[in-house]
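Title: Prediction job returns without error message
Component: structure pipeline
Severity: low
Priority: P3
Assignee: unassigned

Description:
Job completed but the reporter wants confirmation the result is attached to the right record. Sequence as submitted:
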Amino acid sequence: MSALLTGYARCSTDSQDLTAQREILLGLGVAKDRIYLDRGLTGTNRNRPGLDQALASVRAGDTLVVPKLDRLARSVPDARDIGDSLVARGVRLSLGGALYDPTDPMGKMFFNILATFAEFEVDLLRMRTREGMAVARAKGKLKGKQPKLSSRQQAHLVQLHQAGEHTIADLAELFSVSRPTVYRVLERARTNT
């Protein structure tokens, strides 16, 4: 049996396009039917069905091809874990066409540096997101999800419930909301009195 190339590509959101990564993998010689994809999953999430399928499909002598290391893992421990498991199984890892050689000290160092930068990039993104949310919150622009019922509607719902003439299901239908929403409104009213 000959050695096979297996490709893996990932994008973090459903709105992102995998075409560029797919083209890179095809250009590196990976067959179209040997490319596994994950869409809408971050690299920090280790539960990635496409990655699991790609890892399960490679055998000793095969090569797992990824466009860039940050598509495979976004943390140093995860990158090392995946890299070490591939080495233990006799599977080579190609990062954008360059083979990762764990026996070469320079190759090992390069791999660790790439993993460190991928993790650093994630940490910077998280920090910027938290800062942006704090600024928006301070300006009053980040208020969270708006209630389904206005305060006036909530007061009316509580009145009807206290009158005892309507069931929770009746109230949900009357106000066009779910039963859990009715329960939340009633609970809030109880805690605020």
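Comment from assignee: result matches the submitted record. The two ends are 74 Å apart (CA to CA).
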